[in-house]
Amino acid sequence: MIYTNIVHSSLGSVHLFAAIIAMITGLIVILKGHKGNISHQRIGYIYVFSMLLLNGTAFGIYNFGKFSMFHFFAIVSLVSLTAGMLPMVFNISNKMRFHYRYMSWSVVGLYAAFVAEFFTRFVHFEYFWVVVMIGTIAVSAIGGYLIEKNAKRFLK
Predict the structure, then answer these.
(1) Measured between alpha carbons, how far is 48 from 56 in angstroms, rounded to an integer?
(2) Alpha-carbon span 93 to 80, nearest angstrom
(3) For range 112-128, the mean pLDDT
(4) Considering the chain, what is the average pLDDT of its residues?
(5) Cα(128)–Cα(134) distance, rounded to whole angstroms?
(6) Whole-number Å distance between alpha carbons of 115 and 120
(7) Which one-letter DSSP state was computed for residue 104?
(8) pLDDT(3) > 50
C-alpha cells in the first residue's frame, strides 16, 4: 500500500511549511546571480530560520524513543547550516569559500531529503530503498556538479 497522508499532526504541518519556505528561499538564493547584497542576505536569513524550524520539528516528528536515520540527517543538516553561517558571523578568513560550499550543500541536502520523502510517500515499500537511494544519490551528484561548476563564478 502506498501511504500518501503527508501531514500527521500540527507539528507535521509546521515541518511541511518550513520545508516549503526553505526550498523556495534556498532555490531563490542559488538562482539569483548577485551574492552578498542585502536581498541575498534577507532571503538567506529566511532560509536559515526555516531550516532551523524544519530540523527542530524533525526531532519531534520522528521521536520513536530511539535515534533514527531522520535524527542523523537532521543533525547533518544542522552541522552544514552552522558551518555555512559561522564564517559570516565571525568574519573568518576565506569566509566566502566556506559559506558558499556549506550553504550550497545545505540546499542540496534539503532537496535530497525532499526526493527521499517524496518516494517514501508515493512508492510501494517493495521498491522503497532502491528508489530512495537512487533519487538521493542523483540529487546529490547533480548538486555537487553544479556547486563545483559555479564555484569559480561565485568565489572570484
Answers:
(1) 12
(2) 18
(3) 80
(4) 84
(5) 10
(6) 8
(7) H
(8) no
- What is the model's pTM? 0.84
Q: At what angle do helices 38-61 and 95-122 cross, to 10 degrees?
A: 40
* Torsion of Cα atoms, 132 then 151 then 19 then 92, to 10°: 120
C-beta atoms surrounding 116 within 10 Å: 20
Distance in angstroms (rounded) separating the CA atoms of residues 142 and 135: 11
The cell numbers describing 82, all together, are 552552522
The set of cell numbers assigned to 18 is 518550513
Torsion of CA 65, 105, 41, 78, to 10 degrees: 20
- What pLDDT was estimated at residue 74? 87
Cell of 41: 542576505
More confident residue, 12 or 141: 141
- Tell me the C-alpha distance between 155 and 112, whole Å: 24
